[in-house]
UniProtKB/TrEMBL annotation:
SUPFAM superfamilies, sorted: N-terminal nucleophile aminohydrolases (Ntn hydrolases)
Family: Belongs to the Ntn-hydrolase family.
Entry superkingdom: Eukaryota
Protein name, UniProt field: Uncharacterized protein
GO cellular component: cytoplasm
Organism: Romanomermis culicivorax
Pfam assignment, any one: Asparaginase_2
InterPro entries, sorted: Ntn_hydrolases_N, Peptidase_T2
Gene Ontology terms describing biological process: L-asparagine catabolic process via L-aspartate
Gene Ontology terms for molecular function: hydrolase activity
Entry binding sites for substrate: R10, V11, G12, D13, T32, G33, N34, G35
Amino acid sequence: MVHELDPLGRVGDSCIVGAGFYADKNVAVTGTGNGDVFVKKQTCVRVAQ
C-alpha cells in the first residue's frame, strides 16, 4: 500500500541495518517512529550496545 503523502521511491528506515533493526548473536532490536531520526542516530544499534 502506498501512502499518498510519501514520495514514490522513498525507502523507509525499517530496512536499514542499525536504524530500523539490528541483531547480533546476543540481542535483536527493532524500532518504529520518526524514520529520519532513526537513520541519523542509528537508534537500534545504539540501543543494542
